[in-house]
Amino acid sequence: MSGAPGSATPAAERRETARALVYSPLPLPTTTRLVLLVLVAGAGASFAAWWWLVLGQGNWPGAQLACLPAAEGAPDAVLARFTGCVNDVRLTQSAVVLCGPLGLLALALLCRAAGRRLSLWRWSAQPDRSSLSARLTAVLPDEDGDGEGPRPTLWVRGGRRIGVRARASGTVRKPWIVADSHVFVLPDRQVEAMFRHELAHLRLRDVGRVRLAVAAWWILLAGVTLPVGAALLLDPGLLAAGLLARMPVVLVVLLLTLCAVLRVREHDADLAAEADPRAPLGATAEHVASDVPPNRRQRLRRAVGLASHPTSATRLDVLADPARAWGVSAAECLATGLAAGLLFTELALLVASLTPGRAQLAYAISGLLTGWAVAGVVVVAWWRAVAVGHRDASGRRPARAGAALGLGVLVGSQLSGRAAGDWVRDTKTADGLATALSLTHAPRAQVLALTVALMIGGALFATWSTSLARAVRAEVTGPHSAPACAAAVVLSGLLVAVPLGSWFLFARLVAARAAPDIRWSVIATPWWVTGVLVSIGGALAPLARAARRTAEGPTARRFRPVAVLACAGVVVAAGAGWATVGGGFAGTTATSVTRSSGPPATVTTRPGSPATTGDETVPLEDLPVLPPEDERTAQLRANTALVCRALTLGGTVIWTDPQRRRDTAELLGGLDDTVLRAASAVLLREPTGPVDREALVASLLRCDLYFRYHR
């Protein structure tokens, strides 16, 4: 292990290793695991805020209908005001959705503050005025020494419960330790080891963060899952089954992650207690070995992954080999991927509100933010593993863990509430903050291609991360250890921004049953090609530079950037080929229209609305785009519902074909609607030229409002 000094005896060497790990500038495993909780909890709170404050309020019909112009005006000005107003409403809704995570944080802080005092009352704890306080004082650092913080207060809990022994609580300024009454009869060496362990929790400052995470889980259960579940049971709809199946799964994933954090923090505290130079060698191991054997209930909880403490055997193994605590398993990467998938589905819709009409940019920004969050967990974990020489960072283990990371992203995206069904079709009140993301009914070949692309991409990402850490000689300690790791995290987010955002955009188009040419239009742009080339070049540049320095050593491994480039090229070429010719279907209920810039806008019809009569998939060429000329009576021409139906089901042909576009514009001009007449005037201005994007988007937005509010 680089950065950990050696020693004469194995016990002293283990102590030096533990001290190097605990006082390393790299984030500890407890810190990175808590990032997972933040991602999942934030995504759940955002969805809950949208459910109650946007969708539950009818999507603010008054605010959206107020965007309709009250009087005629210049066509361009009418369209600009209308689309700008609708986008402003969606932006305001996004700000409201952000209140979900902020409200969750505020409630968790309140629960944490109240829980500290309530726990003392529930435990019948009293301030200690016996010789037990002297034992605590004996293990406290000197006031003129390390300056570890204020002296904690000792409380003694009444009752006969045996097993917990002691726990740390309180705040940074007013910490305390609560001990069971039977601790009085334990030997001094064991009591002091127990107190060192609890002081380590306070010194590492994981008490408050963990209590905050526990409070957040209970708030999500009581304030999100149960109320939303009750509302769905009382008023079930087309989305009820999908939501009721997903919410408990997400909550269980969050609970399992929380329990993993609780177990990891015990290992960090054990190592911190072992690193105390004033403690007798092996005292922490003796304390752990004296733990009470688990009862039947505790064994059952450990079997299902809900134990809050690791087994004594596991803790002893970590104390015997401290580097074991710095591994990164495939299960942790899978959980990180789940969190990333849940986060991206919420984040992309919010960012899209900031960049209306620029879906590619919105998804790239979301990929950047999600990539940084993921890198803060797995890249840091791989960096730690390389620094200590852990086996999880060698051989094929990183590639397998990366594949699990990619698989987790797919599963997380489908566990999101946004993937419970077609929100636009099934709710009749959802607009730009909801979309079709479910791949349940998508062609299996397309879903398989998306899965393989994610898993291969995750394996490449993991291989690159560990290779970079090994090439730059990642260290546990040292002046450059933390800055180098931070630079790797920043670089990782930049590299995965475009690929990750493009994957989610492809998944959205596949879920909406977009035609192959629409999928091709996403990547057939200089912007996308430039982004992918920057990602590949940015990934290879630091490896190639570090490989020269690494190759100078006699036993150093030579890195092969050409092989990585070849693998990345195969993935990109396969994705481009799939997007071009994959899935030979041409029409669905969700048709697409081409914009002058950015990716296509997907328009989905709803069953039961004036725009359609069913939920069946019909080939696009069989749809009645417009009635025959001899059947277009004055009543049909003035029927907004029929014209909007032709508009939404017509596909790209009514915009790209000059004659169809002129015909559509004439129909729009005959309606009693200011926005549609303005769009008609703009389209007729140059019927054979490029399609005016403002007129196209305004027409679709206006028809969407008509179908939702019948006005």
How do you describe this structure in short?
Helices cover 64% and strands 4% of the residues. With 711 residues, the protein is mainly α.
Which oligomerization state do the chains in this entry correspond to?
single chain
Number of helices: 26
Runs in which pLDDT lies below 50 for 5 or more consecutive residues are 2-7, 553-559, 579-625
Content of β-strand: under 5%
Q: Rounded to an integer, what's the Rg over CA atoms?
A: 30 Å
Average pLDDT taken over every residue: 80
- Give the strand tally: 6
Q: Helix/strand/pairing class, anyone? A: mainly alpha
Helix content: 55-70%
The neighbouring-strand order within the major sheet is 1-2-4-3
Largest sheet composition: 4 strands, mixed
What is the straight-line distance between the termini?
A: 70 Å
Shape: elongated
